[in-house]
Design goal:
Two copies of one chain form a homodimer. Chain A is built from 13 helices and ten strands. Chain A has an eight-stranded parallel β-barrel, surrounded by five helices. Chain A has a two-stranded antiparallel ribbon with strand order 6-7. Chain A is α/β, with parallel strands linked by helices. The longest helix of chain A has 24 residues. Chain A has one domain: Aldolase class I (TIM Barrel, Alpha-Beta Barrel). Chains A and B meet through helix 4, helix 5, helix 6, helix 7 and helix 8 of A and helix 4, helix 5, helix 6, helix 7 and helix 8 of B.
Amino acid sequence: MTKQELIQQIKIKQSFLCVGLDPDLSKFPPHILELEDPIFEFNKAIIDATKDLCVAYKPNTAFYEAYGVKGWEALEKTINYIPKDCFIIADAKRGDIGNTSKSYAKAFFETLKADAITVAPYMGSDSVLPFYEFKDKWVVLLALTSNQGAADFQMLPIGNKKLYAEVVEKATQWGTSENTMFVVGATQTSEIAELRSLAQDYFFLVPGVGAQGGSLKEVFDFGANADCGLLVNSSRAIIYAQKDENFALAAKKEALKMQTEMALYLQRLVD
Amino acid sequence: MTKQELIQQIKIKQSFLCVGLDPDLSKFPPHILELEDPIFEFNKAIIDATKDLCVAYKPNTAFYEAYGVKGWEALEKTINYIPKDCFIIADAKRGDIGNTSKSYAKAFFETLKADAITVAPYMGSDSVLPFYEFKDKWVVLLALTSNQGAADFQMLPIGNKKLYAEVVEKATQWGTSENTMFVVGATQTSEIAELRSLAQDYFFLVPGVGAQGGSLKEVFDFGANADCGLLVNSSRAIIYAQKDENFALAAKKEALKMQTEMALYLQRLVD
């Protein structure tokens, strides 16, 4: 999916919601566990319930790999099931030497047919560049994550800026806003504003709203650009809203709540 | 496998060789491609030919994921086939928020039964700590990699030291030399010596010997500790030594060449 197509979907659906598909059998409603492929059946119900309210889905590969071959099969089926008008981010946080990153790119862009993959920057340019060889595919580079450990390295000072800003500055030389997004955690608004000034036209994938304490309004106030430029992710708050036969309806209600708030903020861009 | 067991294997086999199992169908001998599971059959032949000459195997997960579900199945079969006296490193370069890292740990330690997993440090402590909850399992943390891009972030100055040294210093507070190794590229000997002084009892996993320009003798001179403390990896130089029916024999010859040189250096530790 191209940047223009993504922006158009945000306008049509009045939403910049990304739903995280992180399957965990221990959190599934009991009746789902009796089906032949519980992970896919769960995701299918969540997708059916939320596809008109979100513009992106983000399966985190860890939760599929934990179930081995069966998990990997469920991931393939899930990605194939997601409607074509939704942006698909494989949240894999990969990154390796050139030759190996190319294999990951093949795995996620060709075999799995995701639009984007999250990439960890630690190994530098040649670990990221191979992902750019695939047309209309995206790198979503970790810049400032929303977890506590972000302070350990991302926040360290490099001269008069911090490591996360150095990552964003370097990466804007490797790719463009047509094939690169940054992960920017919702928890620190001043950093969101700082990164927006460094990467004005770029999309940010924002985790950490809700459960981890970030506010949707503040993320929009400090992080939006003229195209919106945000994908705000929510995983557990939506997909595990209720652990019974009505789980998909409960997920839809939570997604609708977020989409309604998002529509309100998006109106500002039109004015 | 415990640290003591690994040290014992190094003494018994007079080797600190780790063989990288990075399957690439385009580099396989043609007759292998006709078999039902070419990746597993290739690995099986390589393992049979090299298991007495190396102490560890390191499948890089990218090369399996590139083949989707079939690749993942071949990875499971390969890990099950590796003899119990060999240390198994899943070279996955994972790392995510706590909850998610725990899923990766489950995937690689329980489902796949690897001894160790490579982890990228960018997300900090809570992305690494969940891997320590599994007894006799190991974190192999990226410190200084052997690729060109290492200069982009790993080499940046944080006060009077560099980021890779900061990673090693912090990580020695998270784990111990009984459950933590560091990836230290073979290409810069002065940095190997510096990191050895920061993490004296720790094992280093060393890529970059041979193809990437590092010298085995220099790695040993600057990096060995009293227990050896090194696993030197070789992938392509061994497994793709020859592209015909004698590929396994050619792999064995290359592994023997490295093991013979290693035995020579290991004698110094005994004296």
